[in-house]
Design brief:
The complex is a heterodimer. By secondary structure, chain A is mainly β. Chain A is built from 1 helix and 17 strands. In chain A, the strands form 2 sheets. In chain A, strands 1, 3, 4, 5, 6, 8, 13, 14, 15 and 17 form a 10-stranded mixed β-sheet that branches. A 7-stranded antiparallel β-sheet of chain A has the order 2-7-16-9-10-11-12, with no helix packed on it. Chain A is globular and about 50 Å long. Helices cover 2% and strands 37% of the residues of chain A. Chain B is mostly beta strands. Chain B has 5 domains: 178 residues, Galactose-binding lectin (Jelly Rolls, Sandwich); 82 residues, Immunoglobulin-like, CATH 2.60.40; 142 residues, Jelly Rolls; 116 residues, Sandwich (Jelly Rolls); 116 residues, Galactose-binding domain-like (Jelly Rolls). In chain B, the strands form 10 sheets. In chain B, strands 1-3-6-11-8-9-17-16-13 form a 9-stranded antiparallel β-sheet, with no helix packed on it. In chain B, strands 2, 4, 5, 7, 10 and 12 form a 6-stranded antiparallel β-sheet that branches. In chain B, strands 14, 18, 21, 22 and 23 form a 5-stranded mixed β-sheet that branches. Chain B starts with a strand and ends with a strand. The chains are: A mainly beta, B mainly beta. At the A-B interface, loops of A face strand 13, strand 16 and strand 22 of B.
């Protein structure tokens, strides 16, 4: 594979500049948890007729622009229209970001989540996706803590972001289509201070073909993979002083933690703090094509 | 051209391994197409690579290019020992005030299809902006690319993306630069270039592109004519991973890089260099483009045109407006100044907008003064007291030609005469007749005899022998003197769009806000005892019994969701008799159109908005009051069926009038919606239940959409919205559709309707007519 592994590069790849890459097949070469120890518990293969909407027994739509552009000054209005999200008849789900005037916003797109339909603590969360590109386009495949408080309330079982935790399996800037960011947000390490790393493809781009994005989340660590190559591991030891690890039942101080299941989100945002502005000529529509989403439990 | 010699012995540098480096999974070698020409990447390392010693070809010294400042420097280099050194002259350098040219492969050319960018390092003695590029070979320049870069006082890497590498199968223009002292306050400076080569970088990706400046242009079809695709740009994202930033680079991109599609090859075809040939003036065609597989913004729609109302002044006994240059007895006497000979000549392109025989030509010759033009005496002075706009048909070899049209009193001496009034407009198409409107509103003085016309093409630019033509110079616009709205001369309101600010309007809700160049009225009120306690009014003269159309854009805030207002027209004096309607305003800014007949008339009347009956924010803009034509059976029932009055009368979210070449039409592009009526276009009209009407309209969709359906009909604009409708299939050929309809119900509040939501795609609609049978 034409991947540059951020962790194990160096000497192995010292001669890469004159190397003719091998034509290995595209089968996943999982260096993480052996497949034998993974049990599939959730999947959506997105099979169905072209133009059909997605399975709402699994997915919820986030509609609108949220508060302050979903907290990020994003410019799109999310809809559940099939123009913005539908199956393509080829076994994929397509989220389409469109430049159009809609409800006072200049772009439309979609964001979906499995909240209250499916969530899980620990396991392998995986999706095969061809990403959109273009300056100002911000696709993501990510997880949020199921106890996130979306409307202010007094319910002690819900907490506001970032106390609920967030795992970004991939998020990308359309103007850098060779780079995928993997991040974790929690109390003490959110937004610009998130625990994050990225992987750059060599001689390849995320918007020109499908790639498999995954995290393997155990009580000890969260490992980030692209096409089976692990490019980052984040553990409780990475949490800055004063921060809390909200991804296990034990917190950073060894006390009972706030571990909980996480649900899955997929979206294409347009503009915002992470990605910056589009240009008037940024090509639209832009499409995120998702072949599947699968979640595995880890068996000992 | 002058060749410069680099007096240095050349050595052939071995092709570095990067050139034979293959991407991941390439087909087997036997499947690879043999490159016909060498794919050498390097241009300059320590020496020019695989170039002759005459690789630099300067721009023309006769045009000011200085050929003395180009050489190499053995003391400064980014890598190795030697760089290219360029001394940029000062403005008064006798050897030329700028330096520039190309690096030419004097051999057979190179195959650059495996590279997506040209990179080099540069260093400058001062911060300066220069132009760089490649693809210019001083022969065809078919794949020219250029962009401006800022040089700095340290070595920096610069990347010029290749817009579409597939085109560069045999390229000889390796590099281009042009540098003057415009960015350095007139001081000369020196810069150095090094390590220049084509690359295949993973950090370069296309962001988008455009043709025709990104505009969707519409032009009249003239069989046999050509249009050259122009204003072509591309954008690329270029990431510097060490600096961790992604720049957006905009390239002037030769039309030859794009792939073109014509929706109707019987009407127009496009060659590989972007020259559109119009084969027929029957039917329409849409020209679109893509760059390396990504759709470009902008298009040209070629439509059948109606040129039936050209000016015929052959019967006139004096030179006067309108001017058609058709008389064989009148002495049109254009007098050139500064080198712009002018004459009445045959129409260079009969058809389209201009079917007349004769036109006025002007040639701005090489060597002319930048201000060269003509004056022509008008024997009957132009009377601007009623109409302040002048329309003219112009034919220019280039889009972007400025046309200055002026009038003055020849008896008030001076050059120009202090009496002169002038307006400049710009062409947007090349080699096509185009209507330009010169608006002299606010410039004219009724005491002046405007007995001389002044005409200057490309004022401020020296001539290049370009030939320009003008015809059909005539006054247009409203004659009642009330309308100052350049977008709608029929508007009776002077400040209906609030662009003049806090004038004319009155009332305690009058509060003009300016945002992004647009002014509008914004108020926020509580409910008051009387609805008229909170009000906004614009004075206007009304006549009793006349029917008026009041149109305005309005919205409330998202927080308020919706609110009502009372809108209408009436007396501004006792007894304040008026004709009003209560209108519900939503959070979506939209147009509202009311048809109103005031019970009384007076010079002291007004348009009124009473807000006190409901609370909340109200934004109001583009208030237009027009007199609706009186109608009788058998006559045209629609006042703006041809859309020539612009964004008035019609309503609905598909209402989008585009004006091009003197013709206005409605153009929309919609997705499929839940209900067919979710996307709609309507024109108010009064209908009688059971009567028979004929609805006729012209419509077309785009080539890409091939065909689409719409629902067309007539019906109520209230209550149960009963209507008589038909589903019509529209094709990419613009054609007329005629329906005979009988509405089940009638009311003064009825409409012609087009519901588009049951199918998707582009829809052009024009010349809508409704008559009572």
């Amino acid at each position: 594979m034409n991947l540059k592994n951020k962790i194990v590069k160096n000497s192995l790849y010292a001669f890469a500049i004159c190397l003719v890459w091998s034509c290995a097949d595209d089968e996943r070469t999982n260096i993480g948890i052996p497949e034998a120890n993974l049990r599939l518990v959730f999947e959506d293969e997105f099979n169905g007729e072209s133009g059909q909407s997605i399975n709402t027994d699994i997915w919820n739509f986030d509609i609108g622009n949220g508060e302050n552009g979903w907290g990020n000054q994003e410019s799109q209005y999310y809809t559940d229209r099939t123009e913005n999200i539908s199956l393509d008849g080829q076994g994929n789900m397509v989220i389409t970001a469109i430049r159009e005037s809609f409800q006072g916003f200049n772009f439309t797109s979609s964001r979906i989540n499995t909240r209250e339909n499916f969530d899980q603590q620990f396991g392998r969360f995986e999706a095969r996706i061809q990403m959109p590109g273009g300056r100002g386009v911000w696709p993501a495949f990510w997880l949020l803590g199921a106890n996130i408080e979306t409307e202010p309330d007094d319910d002690p079982n819900t907490v506001v972001w970032p106390f609920s935790g967030e795992i970004d399996i991939t998020e990308q800037r359309g103007q850098e289509p060779f780079r995928s960011h993997g991040s974790m947000h929690g109390p003490g390490y959110s937004a610009g201070q998130a625990l994050t790393s990225f992987l750059d493809l060599e001689d390849n781009r995320f918007d020109t073909g499908f790639h498999v994005y995954a995290v393997e989340w155990t009580p000890e660590a969260v490992d980030f993979f692209i096409d089976g190559e692990r490019f980052n591991r984040i553990t409780i030891d990475d949490v800055p002083a004063g921060g809390d690890w909200v991804f296990d039942d034990i917190d950073a101080d060894g006390n009972e933690g706030t571990g909980q299941p996480f649900f899955v989100l997929l979206n294409v945002a347009v503009e915002g703090t992470f990605v910056g502005s589009t240009s008037p000529s940024t090509s639209f529509p832009q499409q995120m094509v998702v072949d599947y989403v699968r979640v595995y439990e880890i068996e000992e | 051209m002058k060749n410069l010699f680099i007096t240095r012995k050349l050595s052939f540098v071995a092709v570095i391994c990067a050139l034979t480096f293959l991407n991941g999974c390439q087909p087997d070698d036997e499947d690879l197409q043999e490159a016909t020409f060498p794919n050498i990447a390097d241009i300059f390392t320590d020496v020019p690579v695989n170039l002759t010693d005459q690789f630099f070809v300067s721009f023309d010294p006769n045009a000011g290019a200085n050929t003395n400042g180009f050489g190499t420097d053995n003391n400064i280099a980014f890598e190795g020992n030697t760089s290219i050194r360029i001394d940029v002259p000062s403005p008064n350098d006798p050897n030329g005030n700028f330096i520039g040219g190309i690096f030419l492969d004097r051999g057979e050319g190179r195959n650059l299809t495996s590279y997506n960018s040209l990179s080099f390092y540069a260093l400058s003695s001062t911060t300066a902006t220069i132009t760089v590029g490649f693809g210019t070979d001083f022969e065809t320049d078919s794949f020219a690319v250029s962009t401006d870069i800022e040089l700095r006082t340290g070595w920096n890497k610069y990347v010029i993306p290749v817009p579409n590498a597939n085109r560069l199968v045999q390229e000889r223009g390796m590099f281009l630069f042009a540098a003057g002292s415009g960015s350095t306050n007139g001081f000369g400076y020196t810069f150095w270039l090094d390590e220049m080569r084509f690359e295949d970088s993973n950090f370069v990706s296309q962001n988008g592109s455009l043709i025709q400046g990104g505009q969707n242009q519409v032009t009249a079809a003239n069989a046999g004519s050509t249009i050259t695709i122009s204003d072509t740009l591309s954008e690329f994202n270029v990431t510097d991973v060490t600096a961790n930033n992604s720049q957006l680079i905009t390239l002037n991109t030769a039309p030859g890089y794009f792939d073109y599609t014509s929706s109707n090859e019987a009407v127009a075809t496009v060659d590989e260099l972007g020259v559109v040939s119009i084969l027929s003036d029957q039917g329409s065609a849409v020209i679109t483009a893509s760059l390396d597989g990504i759709t470009a913004l902008g298009s040209i729609t070629i439509m059948e045109a109606d040129g039936s109302d050209n000016v015929d002044d052959s019967g006139n006994s004096q030179v006067m407006l309108p001017l058609g240059f058709e008389s064989s007895t009148l002495a049109y006497n254009p007098v050139e100044f500064g080198g712009a000979p002018s004459a009445v000549v045959a129409n260079p392109m009969i058809g389209g907008l201009n079917n007349s025989t004769n036109v006025l030509s002007t040639q701005k010759v090489v060597g002319s003064e930048p201000f060269a033009g003509i004056i022509m005496d008008i024997e009957v002075p132009v009377d601007f007291s009623e109409q302040q706009q002048v329309s003219a048909l112009v034919f220019s070899p280039a889009a972007g030609t400025t046309v200055l049209l002026g009038f003055e009193d020849s008896n008030i001496p001076g050059a120009p005469s202090p009496s002169q009034i002038a307006v400049t407009e710009t062409t947007t198409v090349a080699n096509q007749w185009q209507e330009l409107i010169f608006d002299f509103t606010g410039l004219t003085d009724n005491a002046v005899d405007y007995n001389r016309m002044v005409l200057i093409y490309n004022n401020g630019t020296p001539g290049d022998n370009s030939l320009f033509y003008i015809d059909d110079i005539r006054q247009v616009g409203d004659s009642d003197g009330g309308g100052d709205d350049p977008n709608n001369p029929d508007n009776l309101l002077e400040n209906g769009d609030f662009e003049q600010g806090m004038v004319t309007w009155f009332g305690n809700a009058f509060n003009v806000v300016e945002d992004g160049g647009n002014s509008f009225n914004q108020s926020d009120n509580e409910i008051s005892a009387n609805s008229f306690d909170v009000n906004l009014s614009h004075p206007v003269e009304l006549a009793a019994g006349t029917t008026y159309t009041l149109s305005f854009d309005a919205a409330t805030s998202a927080a308020d969701a919706s609110r009502t207002i009372i809108a209408g027209i009436g007396l501004n004096e006792a007894d304040f008799a008026s004709s009003t309607e209560t209108v519900t305003i939503t959070a979506d800014l939209q147009n509202y159109t009311l048809t109103l007949t005031p019970p009384s008339g007076s010079a002291n009347s007004r348009v009124l908005f009473d807000l006190g009956a409901d609370d909340g924010l109200l934004v109001i803009d583009n208030v237009v009051l027009t007199i609706e034509s009186t109608t009788t059976g058998g006559d045209e029932l629609l006042t703006n069926g041809d859309f020539e009055q612009g964004m008035v009368t019609w309503f609905g979210n598909a209402f989008n009038v585009i004006e091009d070449g003197g013709n206005s039409f409605n153009q929309s592009d919609n997705e499929i919606s839940a209900n067919s009526f979710d996307v709609n276009l309507s024109h108010p009209v009064e209908l009688t239940a059971g009567a028979s009407y004929t609805l006729s309209f012209d419509a077309g969709t785009s080539a890409a959409d091939v065909s689409r359906t719409i629902i067309a009909g007539i019906g109520l604009n209230e209550g149960g919205f009963e209507a008589d409708i038909e589903t019509v299939t529209i094709t990419s050929t613009l054609q007329n559709y005629t329906l005979t309809l009988s509405p089940p119900a009638g009311s003064a509040n009825s409409r012609v309707l087009f519901d588009l939501g049951s199918d998707d795609g582009v829809l052009v609609i024009d010349n809508v007519s409704l008559v009572l049978n």
